[in-house]
Amino acid sequence: MNIQTQLVKTITGFCLLFILIVINPAQAQQATWIWYPGDYEIWLANDMQNRRTERGAFFPPFWRMDSHYVLMDFHKEFNLAKAEEVELYAEGQYNVKLDSKMLPGAPTKVTIPAGKHKLNIKVHAQDKVPAIFVKGPTIVSDSTWLVTFEDKEWIDETGKVSGQSGTAWLKAGSWNFNDPKNLPSKFKLPTEPWKAAKVTRQPGSILVDFGKETFGFVKLHGLKGKGKVSLYYGESQEEALATETGETLDHLQVDRPQAVDMVLPGSRAFRYVNIQFDNSVSIGDVSMLYEYLPVADRGKFRSSDPELNKIWDVAAYTLHLNTREFFIDGIKRDRWIWSGDAYQSYLMNYYLLFDSPSVTRTLLAQRGKDPVTSHINTIMDYTFYWFLGINDYYQYTGDKSFIKQFYPRMQSLMEFALSRRNKNGMVEGLAGDWVFIDWADGLSKQGEVSFEQLLLCRSLETMALCASIAQDQEGARRYNELATKLKAKLFTTYWDQNKHALVHSRVNGQPTDNVTRYANMFAIFFDYLNAGQKQEVKQHVLLNDKVQKITTPYMRFYELEALCAMGEQNYVLKEMKDYWGGMLKLGATSFWEKYDPNEKGAEHYAMYGRPFGRSLCHAWGASPIYLLGKYYLGVKPTSPAYATYLVEPVLGGLEWMEGSVPTPKGDINIYCSQKQIKVKSGEGTGTLRFQSKSKPTSKGTRITAKGNNIFEMTIDKGKEYVVAYNAK
């Protein structure tokens, strides 16, 4: 075969492939259930967050809960080469219009003639989210459909809005419900059976140990008799045995003349289950159904330090337990979508799961509907974390469509926050606001707290970015101007030259003398400080034991990030081993809401004035995933979606480490020892940066000296690079 013939066949093959993928929509498009964007997330979040109980009592959230729109109009225009029949499914009562003419009844199949046509499906549902599923050879329900809650405003395919005034249309939302029989209203997370690790029997009681913290439904096997059965759940054995003070329990009245297997209806968090039952009742065995979100690990980490490897593994398990329909705070107690907790889960997610739908589901559930009447979760700082979450989501995923779609909701939330500034242009807690910051004894929340101004400033910078993406140039100018002015005011108001730090607050127009870690450590990784100020903060705040210490993994996350950003990986490694390793030494199988090494015995379980109020499986405890991925393996995007990125491995005292960091289109794989670095990436164009005592070498690759023993080289997609160097 000559070259010309081969070339013709190759081009023909590519053309056929193009026709199959691009021209034939039946091959390229996937039908899925669609709804008004954000409504399903709100509906599902309402269902999930109202499952919480405390000692058997219903315990709902204490913030406003929105609901879905009950009447929805779905719209799509088509230009068909030939007629086709489509199948129609709906969640709710519905009618169908073809070219504005009502079809009789509620048809399950419609034939659409060749040519240009418009299909409208109107759905009403009170108890569930109005949704449709449309499936034909080329016509399918997907995110290209337009949807309105009858505010009389549409947009055509060119992006031009038409119709009467009102809230703008949106493109339909979806979440991989790709089977017409897989109804969104019937969604449940999958389960799998788990056996107990140990069962201890006594007359009238069974103590079950599942070997580690877990979540799901207890299953009683061979349940028989008539009488009372009580189940007391515990993240610790002490809690399970404390029948009067444990947080979670179930009471059953049993009347089973024949032995049956029974699955408890409510999902619970536990390691131990203490089952008490009347003498007239017998139980053959106890197991559980472990409930989980089916998302696989993509991030990996291993090193020369076995304890650090264990910390990574337990952190990953902790994040999985708290990654459910949404990113929740903890599996035992609240089981709510707290914005501050979720924000950290997003960051960990980018280095372990890279599950974007879990991020957007959670963001939409938190945001709710207009009008805005309070801060997210009623907490001022949690509103600002919501904006930070969007900023990071864009940096890691490059998803402009999400920002364009939901920019109006960002605007209305920001305008609410700005409306609550005082005469000085600062935010401070008003009636109904909760200024949280952290769980810390004696931490003042009064006046104009520097930490809150810092978060607002970053949120305004996020809004300027999102406004540009949404092509709101006036908004971008305004938000950028507000951020610039507030940033300048931050330093004229709070920076104390004598204390070498930002002070904690200003009360009645006067800065306080108190220095805390919060604003100072955020100012480092927000890059708000110059090089000299960063060194001052590191020495006089972060490494100063006289400044009040942090005891929650929540803020420990940010403290250690700031230290890593300052090149203190050796110090941080020791801190991780002391802090998270300290929990492991106490038998932790998931990481806690709070850990204080000075506490003893059952003191570790107490919080909020309750002996077992503390969560022993809290999402914010999993932060080593993020720290090890970003600051040890050293991978981070330098432009959205890893179009460009940096790999800057730092051993921090380890002999070697290896791992993978997920990106939108592939993984970045790294191995680093004291003598060799290996990098391979399936994404973008990267820069490998490292320190070496002597000149490094890499076969066929140019390495550039940047001064101070720092070297750089370019990483191209799909290639593997091996560098010989002498670690500094």
Proportion in β-strands: 25-35%
CATH superfamily annotation of the domain at 34-158 and 166-186 = Galactose-binding domain-like
**What is the alpha-carbon Rg in Å?**
28 Å
So how many helices? Answer: 16
Low-confidence stretches: 1-28, 154-167
Structural class: alpha+beta
State the helical fraction: 25-40%
Total count of strands = 35
In quaternary terms, these chains amount to single chain
Largest sheet: 7 strands, antiparallel
Mean of pLDDT: 93
Separation of termini? 57 Å
Would you state the CATH class of the domain at 34-158 and 166-186? Mainly Beta
From the spread of the alpha carbons, the general shape counts as globular
CATH topology of the domain at 34-158 and 166-186: Jelly Rolls
The CATH architecture name of the domain at 34-158 and 166-186 reads: Sandwich
